[in-house]
Request: fold
Amino acid sequence: MPSTVAASALDLIGNTPLIALDRVHPGPGRILAKAEFMQPGGSVKDRAARAILLAAQADGRLAPAAPVVEMSSGNMGAGLAVACAALGHPLVVTLSAGNSPQRARMLEALGAEVVLVPQVDGVPGQVTGADVAAAAEAAQRLAGERGGFYVDQFHAAEGVAIHRETTGPEIWAQCGGRIDAWVASVGTGATFLGVAAALRARDPRVVCAAVEPEGCRPLAGEAITKPRHVLQGTGYGSVPPHWDPGFMDLAVAATDDEAVRWRRLLATREGLHVGYSAAANVCAAAALLGSGRLPADAVAVTVLCDTGLKY
Reply:
């Protein structure tokens, strides 16, 4: 009889369920959502965290027991904390002071050292691109001072690759190859791009829609008029380094009010307590299905990025 015992928390990452959101969206079409909040670190970032550290160990960039250092809005930090605990590395996370206090407490509970970086032009709960840049600069400096491995998630190719190799194929198999659209918010762009690449390789007709906060839509080619928004971890006001516009058919906007409303609906109608970017994803998927661009019986897949317990 084969063993079903996981060797470590690393083996709990991936293979998340796909759930129908028929209660919040009875039609037209159907929304299916990848339940990434069920990962041990509570978010989709667990996949990239594991992939980056294992690759760095394999090629010598990450020495045994050496510290790992990264800037995070909270989710990558939690994923790295899980991976570092299992792999035996101390972790230092630089976090903008504007991110929710719950994120810092979770990171510290997982054994990470948290360094709060003052905001540049954001306010609590609304972290801007400049705030993220300041936290990233602090992480890079600390990595140099401590002889640690700087993760640099925005430039790590493993982030896109892991979603192309795991998340996308999982979605395709779970849908039985029946998918008309892929909808996801963009931070580093790794989830959106990796899944889009996997789905397009199987069916070039899949419509891929990127979700951006209203007023902060560089992917749509618009001027930034609202750099502050509630979608923490996404919408930094610049095009991500790995961005490939060939995988985006359209960009869909989500307002703060819509994210708040859909987050509440997901909790009260579906029993899913998720974050604001997850809510924006569902909002955007519903808007796309209602736009007339897709068939009336279309299936749109999105991602529930993280648990709402971090907010």
